[in-house]
Amino acid sequence: MRLKTLAFVLCFAFSPLPLLAACGGSFNNFVQNMKAEAVSKGHAPASVDRFFSGIRQSQSVLRADRDQGMFQRPFLDFSRNLISDARLSKGQRLGREYDAVFDSIDRRYGVSRGVLLAFWAFETAYGTYQGDFNTANALVTLAHDCRRPDLFRPQVFAALELYEMGDFDPKTTTGAWAGEIGMVQMLPRDILENGQDADGDGHVRLKTSAPDALMSGAAMLADFGWRRGEPWLQEVRLPDNFDWSQTGIHITKPVSTWADMGVTARSGNLFRGATASLILPQGHKGPAFITYPNFNIYFDWNQSFTYVVTAAYFATLIEGAPKMDRGAPDKGLNAEQMKALQTKLQARGHDVGKVDGILGARTRIAVQLEQQRLGLPADAWPTPALLGKL
């Protein structure tokens, strides 16, 4: 899911007022310009006319694009919402059901089945909810919108190419609000580049063929740089006197160095063939994980830190890891407090990106620096105490 969103868990509490995008000017004029550009790229005029004939601007897509409240939840709450025993057991059952497909994926790409099963679970509840937004309308609406036109304009032309191949119907193809299609939610350009016909029917059918969807997802991860046969995430224990300022995905060390610092695996053994980082999603009193290079590939699928940690952790559960030690984290901040914190951090010269109430990577780094300055445990977990001291 290249756009980095959760399609099926969004809360649709939308305002009834229309959201107008000024950057693209008149939507009808924008569509005409897109048609002209498509013809200039070599697409047949008649094909272009048919593709764009029913395109409409989607207000529901614009509202969904602006509603990202799910990502404001802390890791433990977020993961509790997405991970259940039923979802875990179903993933393990599907792993056995599609054993031959996963064996083929392992031979071709070296991507573990747990990783793909976790994405399959989170993106579409194992294919049961793939989204009901008209994909063509969603892509053109977002290409016209101000926020990420450079991402979505190429996706419109990729959808047009899929249409010309017979693998996309602009009137009936549906998916997530951000234009992703199929069981593991891939954008049209990713389908063109990494779509795989794993069931041998001559088409890439990501909505109806689990083998096609899983193999295509694996091909995309490999294209992102997935390292064959290597782990991605592992729960660890840290000594009480650990230097918390050394944690965070922006700090990497050889695994042997972490071991020398007292880091031990909660189950199994540390993978010593790579460098790694240590992350504390909810501070030093919560769960701790070591992240290997493959963990960083997750951010090419979804940029939300909370989503990535949850998906990576669920993948380890599917493959037999024990449930994490949740610990007893200090109380965090609500959305309004987080925005206040981000505003204060900006005033102190930190780059936290957008003030959105979401604890992203840049906010975590800024929090850690301020914790060090104030003599607090520098674990990148913002608390009311930190907010008060700022």
Task: Describe the protein in words.
Keywords: Glycosyltransferase, Signal, Transferase. Residues 335-390 form the Peptidoglycan binding-like domain. There is one protein chain. With 390 residues, the chain is mainly α. Among the domains are: 20-65 and 133-175, Bacterial muramidase (Helicase, Ruva Protein, domain 3), CATH 1.10.8; 233-318, Lysozyme, CATH 1.10.530.10; 335-389, no CATH class. The chain contains 17 helices and seven strands. It has helices spanning 27-40, 45-52, 59-65, 75-82, 85-97, 99-109, 113-124, 135-144, 149-164, 188-194, 210-224, 255-260, 293-301, 305-318, 335-347, 361-374, 384-389; strands at residues 133-134, 174-175, 233-237, 253-254, 264-265, 275-279, 289-291. The chain has a five-stranded antiparallel beta sheet with strand order 4-6-7-3-5. It has a two-stranded antiparallel ribbon with strand order 1-2. Helix 1 packs antiparallel against helix 2. The radius of gyration is 22 Å and the shape is globular.
Question: Summary?
Answer:
By secondary structure, this protein is mainly α.
